[in-house]
Specification:
There is one protein chain. The protein is of the alpha/beta class and 376 residues long. It is built from 13 helices and 11 strands. It has 3 domains: 157 residues, no CATH class; 76 residues; 128 residues, CBS-domain, CATH 3.10.580. It starts with 6 loop residues before the first strand and ends with a helix.
Length: 376
């Protein structure tokens, strides 16, 4: 749900930025809301001014959320922590950091950097608005954005994981308990408690006959935080289970290959015969690409017999590779980010195996079962 999937917008600082589907209706709805606010506050403005500024302000807020997440990412990169992606959601964004910080202070600094970036941006918008009258277009837009960025910073300081305030709480709990997993559990419990309170407030507001829009928003925000807190803790648990494992530990050394000249019809017969759903594609005995059932489904059924594997395969230049020594938890995150199920493993530039999401999930399940047996 919260992986870096969706519309890819580009890269900043080498970090891919994705737009989650929850943002698609948000930008136009927010533009409409802002246009109504501008219209009510500035009745002398034209309808065109209201709508243009509403749309402009919504885009600038969109950029503000990216700036907030880049604050986290810049500090993480300073600590040599890989930032795999930034994904923007309806209530903000999430920077996917490849591994956990090494010390509580690192966690604290990474977490606090986002709200600090938002507060800095709020001050910048106030500075731009200062020379202009409040009734002017520049003054009005910048004042609104200053207020919204301040609210964004404050909202993220709520001590509920995975909000920034929850991560600050985790850093403090980590420093006191010396146990990262226990600290994560504390922060997750805090996040779920706050989420349930928001849902309860929304239900109470609806029962008391308050504006249904406000009640619905409270319930929706609460549900979103609850799901995020539960999933974030689950991800930490998975990382703990995979700790110490690398691609070399999980990969299959068997490399199923197939020639690029075969038709898709023949390829599917091979899949049915062997049960293997991913093959490395060879041309003149050299690796030229990779093909899975996912690639075939984009080709009409009536064209399978006349379409070669090469026409449907993923070219070598676009294959997601992993190093043999790459940590397993980071590989699983990359698979989620790129929405792939298998990745070839390289050692010294040579393909030495294949690692699959299915194999990783089997390892997770087995290790969890062993843990339960050990504690029973």
């Amino acid at each position: 749900m919260f992986s870096g999937s969706g519309l890819k917008l580009g890269r900043v600082l080498g970090i891919p930025i994705y737009l989650n589907w929850t943002w698609y209706p948000t930008v136009p709805l927010f533009a409409v809301w802002l246009a109504e606010q501008f219209s009510a506050a500035h009745p002398h403005w034209t309808l065109t001014q209201d709508w243009v500024l509403g749309f402009l302000a919504s885009l600038l807020l969109f950029g503000s959320v990216i700036f907030h997440e880049l604050g986290h990412s810049a500090v993480a990169l300073r600590y040599k922590l890989p930032v795999l992606s930034i994904t923007l959601f309806v209530f903000g964004g999430m920077a996917a950091i490849g591994r956990d910080p090494d010390r509580p202070l690192q966690e604290f600094n990474i977490a606090i950097a986002g709200p600090a970036a938002s507060f800095l941006l709020a001050l910048a918008f106030l500075a731009v608005a200062a020379p202009f009258p409040a009734s002017s277009m520049v003054g009005a837009v910048c004042s609104y954005l200053a207020e919204l960025n301040a609210l964004l910073g404050l909202f993220n300081l709520v001590p509920g994981f995975p909000l920034d305030g929850g991560r600050v709480l985790r850093a403090i709990a980590w420093a006191k308990t010396k146990d990262f997993r226990r600290a994560t559990q504390v922060a997750s419990w805090s996040g779920q408690t706050i989420a349930y309170l928001l849902i309860l407030l929304g239900v109470v507001a609806a029962v008391e006959g308050q504006a249904w829009e406000n009640a619905l928003w409270l319930v929706f925000i609460g549900w979103f935080l609850l799901a995020a807190a539960q999933q974030s803790y689950a991800q930490v648990a998975v990382k703990r289970v995979l700790d110490g494992l690398s691609a070399a530990d999980l990969m299959s050394a068997e490399l199923p290959t197939i020639d690029r000249s075969l038709s898709l019809e023949d390829y599917l017969h091979e899949v049915l015969r062997t049960g293997r759903r991913c093959h490395l594609v060879l041309g003149n005995n050299e690796l030229v690409g990779m093909i899975t059932l996912h690639n075939v489904r984009h080709i009409p059924r009536e064209d399978w017999a006349n379409t070669s594997i090469q026409a449907a395969m993923l070219p070598k230049s676009r294959i997601e590779w992993v190093g043999a020594d790459e940590p397993a938890a980071g590989i699983l995150t990359r698979m989620q980010e790129t929405d792939v199920n298998q990745m070839p493993v390289l050692r010294d530039g040579q393909v030495v195996g294949m690692v699959s999401r299915e194999a990783m999930l089997r390892v997770i399940q087995t290790r969890l079962q062993i843990e339960r047996l050990a504690h029973s």
